[in-house]
Amino acid sequence: MDIGSSKPIKIEMFYTLMCPSCKILKQMLKEVLPEFGDRFEYSKTLANGPVGIIRSMKLGIHAVPALLIDGRIVFRSVPEKNELINELKNYLNNGK
Length: 96
Hints:
The chain is of the alpha+beta class.
């Protein structure tokens, strides 16, 4: 991604309501993403909802939490906070 570009990079988290690890990842994203300003656009998809089931199957997501950055599965579990930050910085600097 071009540093001067104003288009944010999409981040999507697949989760379920009863998943304790999903709550941890959600909180981590809530803490980390503000450090990057408006460079990322964050959304959540309920993996066991009608749309989420179809998208999960198409993407090969079999467990939650799963985190996609720019449409690519990057984490299939809760990463360490520094891993998440490094991956986000990598996307800003290299586009992946």
